[in-house]
Amino acid sequence: MTRACFVALAISASVVWAHDSPLSYPTPPNPFGDSSAPPPPSGGGDGDGDAGLEKLHLPPRAVASARVRRPPVLRRLVCLGALSAVCFASRPHEPSLLAAIEAHHTASGDLVSDFLRSEPVAFRNVGLASVGLHSDLVWLGLLGQWLPLLPTTIEAFRHWSPALRGPQLLLNFLVLGYVLTKLGGGGLHVSFGRVRRARIHTALTAAFSPDGLVPLLHAVVLALAALPALGGEVDRWRLVAIWAAAGLCSSVASVVWQAVFHRRAAPRSSVGGALMGVLALRAALLPETPVALGPLALPPVRALAVHLLLTFLCNGAAPEELFGLLGGSVFVAVAQLQMREVPSWDDIKTVIKSAL
Questions:
Q1: 102 within 8 A of 135, measured Cβ to Cβ
Q2: Domains of the chain, with CATH numbers?
Q3: Three-state SS for 151?
Q4: How many other C-beta atoms are found inside a 10 Å radius of the C-beta of residue 276?
Q5: Is 122 helix (H, G, I), strand (E, B) or coil?
Q6: Secondary element (H or E) of residue 192
Q7: What span, in angstroms and rounded, lies between the C-alpha atoms of 85 and 95?
Q8: Is 89 in contact with 295 (CB distance < 8 Å)?
Q9: Whole-model pTM?
């Protein structure tokens, strides 16, 4: 036993001596590198993050960009706190759940009174929101309203699908995209490199794949607060198509930015740009209708300002992020032209003749 311990100590001492001794073999030179560059330091990587970056002999621009790309943890915590406060102040309770169930089954054509008497209702307050279970449907209470979130049986799916509105469809698509993003490691996000490798579908899937829990809550809260008023203007599937088109414009803007300035940029989501475009379209179509954000009632332009503020808290004021938001806003001008009544050729000839 003593001999084994002595052998182990001798091996450890030889390893340490070989690591620290100046007689150890030097690092071979790089034949493709700069011969005038100083040799790499012999110290270990026990310093801080910035020192470790400088020890890799990166150019100063790369070191600075690596420092800037640190996740804004404090800003995201502030954003999460603000959104959580709104959800906490407006979480619904059981009586509103009963009214929502009655409206849900009225929309699906069931006998509401008999159905409500025969099926029990389970209600639970979970702090930021509320959760209910009735007739194999999971209900989510958020921002003062109850949403039929998830059916648990095929029979429940028949009652669930007809009562879904546009914002609720977006909520389900965003949650599904968030889960798939976490499972697939961001494979749904878009970048110039992925588009160049013929993964063009990421330009569309990036509009439904938030890159984190805080951006998901940000998009869900503003979508549920601002978009129900568009129900009289567009139907639910058209609203989803408008969201997808705005996200596609935002993805194209991000890809163009990466192609022009830095092609090796990381893949990114375009949920913020899609939300920017849809909020701007709502402000253009309904400029006098306020946005009910929990206990607050904001004009549509202020809702856009809130979205910009939350985007800054989540992702910072990076030029690429602002360019993506601009791409989503460009969609509004195109959508406005499509929604207006296009004059006929006879009307155009009449105007020309009257002018001449």
A1: no
A2: 90-163 (no CATH), 166-339 (1.20.1540.10)
A3: strand
A4: 28
A5: strand
A6: helix 192-196
A7: 22
A8: yes
A9: 0.70
Q: Which tokens go with 41?
A: 């330091």
Which residue matches tokens 């899609």? 274
Q: Reduced to 3 states, what is the DSSP secondary structure of residue 113? A: helix
Name the DSSP letter for residue 269: -
Question: With bands split at pLDDT 50, 70 and 90, how would you rate the model's confidence at 112?
Answer: low
* 307 vs 137: CA distance, rounded Å: 31
Token pair recorded at residue 166: 């546009």
Burial of residue 236 (CB within 10 Å: 0-12, 13-18, 19+) is middle
Can you tell me whether residue 344 is helix, strand or coil? coil
- pLDDT band of residue 271 (cuts 50, 70, 90) is very high
CA–CA gap between residue 250 and residue 314 (Å, rounded): 17
- For the chain, the first-to-last Cα distance in angstroms comes to 112
pLDDT tens-digit map of 279-303: 888 888 888 889 888 778 889 888 8
CA distance 128 to 168: 18
